[in-house]
Structures are given as structure tokens and as C-alpha cells.
Specification:
The protein is an alpha/beta fold and 430 residues long. The protein has 2 domains: 154 residues, Rossmann fold (3-Layer(aba) Sandwich), CATH 3.40.50; 253 residues, P-loop containing nucleotide triphosphate hydrolases (Rossmann fold). It has 17 helices and 13 strands. Strands 8-9-7-10-6-11-12-13 form an 8-stranded mixed sheet, with helices on both faces. The chain has a 5-stranded parallel sheet with strand order 2-1-3-4-5, with helices on both faces.
Length: 430
Amino acid sequence: MANLMHSTAVAQDIEAHGEEPRAGDIHDVRPIPRVTIQAFCESEATAQVLEAAARDRRMARAHVKVHLGGVPAAVDFYQSAPTPNLIVVESRHAAADMLAELSRLAEVCDSQTKVIVIGQFNDIALYRELIGNGVSEYLVAPIAMAEFMAAVSDLFVNPQNGPLGRMIAFVGAKGGCGSSTVAHNVAWSIASHYENDVVLTDLDLAFGTANINLDQDPPQGVAEAVFSPERIDDILLDRLLAKCAEHLSLLAAPSTLDRTYDFDRDAFSSILEAAQRSAPCVAVDLPHQWCAWTRQVLASADEVVITAVPELANLRNTKNLIDSLRDLRPNDHPPRLVMNMVGVPKRPEIAVADFTGALEMSAAAVIPFEPALFGTAANNGQMIGEADPKSTIAADFDFLAQVLTGKAEIRSEKKRSLGLLSRLGLKKKG
């Protein structure tokens, strides 16, 4: 559960009036972004309120499921299911028993998941203890629809909480290394297996392939947004997005050459910020070019994924990218490395261990060369997980999705030094 502290002003108001302020007019509630909400209620009355809220136009973009059973049902459910962006649980227990229940829920809950608790007791001490233990909000039953929606809006729309979505930027070390394929499959995997809404943004405006790979032909896309930055808002973004699956939307590139695509440094900033406000995950497919705006996107991303092929030019370019990103993002996690098209028959290759050892980092995923599988998927407008769900490559993309969403750590591998390529400035271990 995320350790979200409530505002000082609200806490002072509670102390002054003895209870948490109730929500005002429902018309003051801002639209909820593309988040997944699952509720576990103990009473039919509460369930009916949440179901009514789910049908409201302000919740149209959210995915809401309401169950009965309270906290025990939630604990049992998440033993084998991924946790959503927000869990709502109702408990009729007093403080001690409620905290014990929530402690069991925390054991099966991802750290990024927010939790709203609906209880029976209007107790400032209980409220403080819940907030101090990582609960995002505490509401006292019976709740009103506007009150619940205002609480959700405050968690995901409040500007003080910053952007909702994490931005993951995918870039290739060299043209043709498969970075776009990796981006599309990872975005699909996050959306499909974790039921997190993902906005896939194809920024290769001239030659983007996301629309083909996902079997889409949207009439509009990212070009309409970038050439009219003054019009960017949630309404325009919704109109430009193409729905690819229940949790996956595409902001497609035009993939035409009827104009040139020369942009300023911050040309895509407003688009990506709008996408981040709209969904928990924004996957950005960057073209293989180094200019002011691609540099800015890489600098502002939460995660960067570099895809490389095990050969000399890729090694040089990967090292240059890592060095540049270290200067751009000195306080961030190093970029993730994906080794792609490994094991091409009769092609001299740098061994993966030598490649990663020279860079002094591990590979987040090693994707073997499987032209038949990738070719079939591309020709059918499918992702690898759709074309062959049981393949090891589908499992590799799933694992990479786990790493990028914080649900797994990179498997350690023994690094070996590279006994050549000194002209690239790579250190050889003694």
C-alpha cells in the first residue's frame, strides 16, 4: 500500500470539527483517469453506492469492479491476482481488528497500490493510525456517491500528487534492432497481465509501426496533438486515442511522408503530460535519432529501456547512450538493457555476457532470434503473447513488464570482461 499522507489542512479540519469533511456537490468532482479500481464491501448499501458511482460519466474511463466479502475476500483474491491501482475495502471492525485485517492485506498488496478504507467509526485516532500505516483515505459509512468519487479524484487528479502515470521510454541502440517491437509487446503485456491501463505513444511520426503491429488504422493520432499543442487537454487526448484492448490505448503515428517532422525541445511535453494524467502507464516508442526533443523525452522518463543487438556498433552506441543518460539523469535508476535477436545463424556475435560485462550492467531480458514467430505475429497484427502465449519469448516480455512495473527484480548474472574493443573506451576488469 502506498504511504500517502493526507494534507495538513484536512487533518486540522478534522481536529476542529471532530470528523472528516464530507464531499460537496458532485459537479465539483473532476473526471477520474484510466485507473483500475476493485472494491470489497461488507454491506449491500455500500456496494450499491460504489456501483452507482461506477456508472457515472466522471468514472467512464475507470475500470471498476465491486465484490462482497470485505477485507478477508480481498486478501484471498490477491493471493493469486495482481493488485489494481486502487483497492476499496469496507470493514465493520473496531480499530485493533481492522488494523490486523489490513496488515494481512498489505502482505499481498503491491507498494504502488492505493487503498481506501470504509469504516463504521468516526474516530480521529483511528484515522491517524490508518493514514500513518499507509492507507490513502478513510471514509465513514454510510458514504455518498459524491464523497467516494471526490476521494478517488483527490488521489489521482489532485495536482499536488503529481502525474499519475509512469512514463517508460523505449529507444534502440541502432536502427533495426527491434526497439519498437519490444515497446509494443511490453505495453501489451502490462495491460493484459496486470490490468493496468497503458497508453502506447508512437513518436516515430514518419515510420511508426505500432498501428500495424496492433492491427489498428486510426484516422487521427499524435500528429494532430503535436501540431496543435495549445489544444491539448483530456478531451482531445480521448478523441485521438485508439482502443486496442480493454486496458491498452494507442496514440498512433501518421506514418506518412507528406510533411517533415522537425520539432522543438519541448514539442511532446504537453502530450506526454496529458497522457500521464490519463493513465497509470505511458509507454513511449522513440525513433532512432538524437535531437533536442528525443533527449528531452529520455530525460523526463521514469524508466528508459535500451534495445541492442549483440554486435560492435550496438555496443558502442549503447555505451554512449548510457553515458549520456547518466549525465541527464544522475539521480535515476540506470536504463534497462534488452538484448534482442540473439543467436542469428552464421552471424559472428559478441557473447551476451561479454556485451553486458563491458557495460558493467545486467540485461533485463535476452530475446532470441525467432524470425518465424515474430514474422507471423507481425503479419497478423498480433503481439507475441497472442501469437504464442506459451513461448519463452512471451515469458521474457512478461518478465520485462514485471521489472518495469516494479513487480520483479532483474535476475543477476555473472559479468565477464570484454577482452577487446579498447578503442570504445570500455574498461577491462583486472
